[in-house]
């Protein structure tokens, strides 16, 4: 089980998808926590991570399927035919 996890994790990090997903997550959470006035930490006058914990599941709701679609597509792909 650990070897399968390690294989999947390494194949994920060797593709540009991982870095795009990480970048989108960091940019989205950064914008919502620091920039947008409705949820900005700077407007509250004190540091609170409640904004991060309420927004992160919604951001993951769109990013997790983007990560897992590749894995499912590779599992459904037919095996290559070997000749001779």
Question: Overview of this structure, please?
Answer:
This protein is an all-alpha fold and 84 residues long. The protein has one domain (2-76). 75% of the residues lie in helices and 0% in strands. Helix 2 runs antiparallel to helix 4 (50-76). The model has no long low-confidence stretch (mean pLDDT 81).
In brief:
The chain is mainly alpha-helical and 84 residues long. The protein is 75% helix and 0% strand.
Number of helices: 4
The number of E-state strands comes to 0
Q: How much strand content do the residues show?
A: under 5%
Major sheet size, sense and barrel closure:
none
Q: SSE order, as H and E?
A: HHHH
Helix percent band: over 70%
Mean pLDDT: 81
Query: Which of globular, elongated, flat, extended, rod-shaped describes the shape?
Result: elongated
What is the terminal-to-terminal distance? 34 Å
Give the domain tally.
Answer: 1
Low-confidence stretches: none
Content-based structural category: mainly alpha
Task: Report the radius of gyration as a whole number of Å.
Answer: 19 Å
